[in-house]
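Board notes (copied after class):
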Amino acid sequence: MALTTCPECAGKVSDRAETCPHCGYPLKKTPRKKPKPNRRRKLPNGFGSITEIRHTDLKNPFYARANCGKDRYNRPILKPLKPEAYFPTYEDAMEALIKYNKGKVDLSKDMTVETLYRLWFAEYEQEVEPVTARGAKSAFSYCRSIYKKSVQSLRIVDIKNCIENGMAIETRGKNKGKPKEASAKTKINMKSTLSMMLDYAKEMEIVDRNCARECNLSKPTVKDAAKAENPHFSFSAAERKTLWQNRDKENVDLLIISCYSGWRPNELCELALEDIDLNNNRMKGGSKTDAGIDRYVPIHPGIKPLLIARYQQAQELGSDRLINVVSRGKIRPITYAIYSTRFHKIINDLGLDKKHRPHDTRDTFATVAKEADVDEYALKYIIGHSITDITERIYTDRKPEWYYKEMCKIVVDKYSTN
């Protein structure tokens, strides 16, 4: 160690000192720290983009965009990642971008209607009931004439020709492989399905307009659809008498249970054993609307023996579903398609009005409940309709016993015993 002279105060200081102990003059320059290199590698061409939005207090500052092709100047077209484009961390944004690129979605002008359907339906079937999704799938099977057509090139005339001349190919039965023309009601469903698909395309910025919604069906189609629409109507007292007198016949009990519980047919089909509380006289189930999902329905004393029989049968079969039927030589949980087939067979076998449809049992329940002066709000809750009255919906606390008491007001037809 040696002594040197401070250039500021001329004092003696060590040659290792960084500053003068007498005057504080800096004797050595502090080495400047090198900034840490950004370890994030450049994303591959065509992969997309992740941008950090700085200088703002954002909860999700990382903005991810997908590469949707190139413009006429050969520059990449970037569009926000769907359904979420903002993420809390770079890693989250990268993970979403990787998932996107694994099932690369083509948002370019060359996307076909068939591709659009696959993208839309993947989200749609998660949001609706299975029976609704099947209806949309069936309707699109008649749109074969525009499957390979570019979405952006669609015009109103294309949509109208597709619907008016809708044709599908039978996939089963004796007519398998043969063409099948769309009925008037199917044409209405085709227009609805295409409208929802193009709403999705508009949201994804693939198109600027929804030509399906602007398309007007021909007057004969609208007229035929109106004729084909049979209104629901209740089972008469005489028909209910016939059902009770034949309750020991195969599956007749299902119609009786429906008439005195108010379940939608698909809701009845999906009831699980764990949803049946025989001790507290109530069932849990429901679908379709917020008011209908997971609601409790009191068990009317008149149909309790029928439910007990079904419950015990399911236990013996080792099934977790309440309703099980013989189909194709096997005993299996019932589906709506099987229920509908059995329903119409019962109607024909018992000589009931052939215009009856599966949902008519629900109309029957509402009718007999009204005739028995069941409380309006109890009825709405039991059948799964929304209650708009704020006092009733939010501030009134109804006990299960109250609903059961209201249900018991319904008098089961005097013909229920032979």
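Comment from the instructor: The two ends are 119 Å apart (CA to CA). DSSP finds 16 helices and 13 strands in the chain.
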